[in-house]
Amino acid sequence: MSGTAPTRQATWSQSLERGLAILSAFGSDRSTIGVSELARELGLSRSTTHRYIATLTSLGYLQQDAETKRYRLGPRVLDLGFAAINSMDIREISVSHLQALSDTTGFTANLAILDGGDVVYIERCRTSRSGQREIDLNLHVGSRLPAYCTAMGKALLAFVPPERFEEILDGVELVARGPNTITGRAALRAEMQRVRATGVAVNNEELAYGLRSVAAPVRSRSGDVVAAVNLAVHRSMVSIDDLIERYGPAVKRTADAISEEIGHRSPA
Question: How far apart are CA 93 and CA 91, in angstroms?
């Protein structure tokens, strides 16, 4: 037997693993969960699950709805999430670049990272331009959206290793969310090839009716894609051809500028 298993046995905390599994069960598509539902998913008894949930609730990581008796994430989880986001150098680096992109184009500029099958927004520079509120979708730093039907998500998915790409899709239901959502794996693979070839990704009403966006990947010092930048517009503001031809290069330049600044930062 290798040395890895005994080391893990000596240091691994099953209770912590179970507690984190409970918190990870909540997602953008499921905001509340019941005790029995969690117990089935985790393969634990109802009493054991309730004990973990009670502990997490007392610590502020979960909250119980008084009417439904179901649980939702509590404010302590938000504290951890924002602390993690605020600690990212890439967020600090990107702010001035995103603001310049927003000011130049008049549209809201965003930065997101990939987390499993979702994109997580880590920075936003909003515009007050008329009509922009119609497509903001109540998004904020920390918001999650499915990667497969968003421009930033596609800009990130296109550069993950093929086996990881398939693993991500195994955990995602490719449902139609907008009039043009790609719902087939073969079509999505072809879309990933197009993104890799052009260096930009487009969402043409795939997430929601009327919403269009164009995105480009941000790379680390090693060349790995670590984030994506996008511009979000309403279909009444920009045609899909103008979005790609007029604004795609500006988004790509912004992503490249952020990548270059990351590359010039000394490693920690």
Answer: 5
- Residue 237 maps to a domain: yes
Query: Cα(92)–Cα(113) distance, rounded to whole angstroms?
Result: 14
Domain end position, chosen among 74, 97, 117? 74
SS3 content of the chain, % helix, strand, coil (to 5): 50, 20, 30
Quick: pLDDT tens for 130-178.
Answer: 555 555 666 888 888 999 999 999 999 999 999 999 999 998 999 999 9
DSSP 8-state class, residue 1:
-
The domain in which residue 33 lies consists of 4-74
Looking up tokens 């009493």 gives: 47
Burial classification of residue 192, based on how many CB atoms lie within 10 Å of its CB (0-12 exposed, 13-18 middle, 19 or more buried): buried
- The average pLDDT across 199-217 equals 95
Same domain, 104 and 229: yes
Q: Are 150 and 158 in contact (CB under 8 A)?
A: no
The separation between CA 134 and the C-alpha centre of its own chain, rounded to angstroms, equals: 21
Residue spans of beta strands (DSSP E) within the chain: 62-64, 71-73, 108-115, 118-125, 144-146, 201-204, 211-219, 225-234
**Residue indicated by tokens 């500006």:** 250
Q: Tell me the average pLDDT across 90-112.
A: 92
Residue 99 confidence (pLDDT):
95
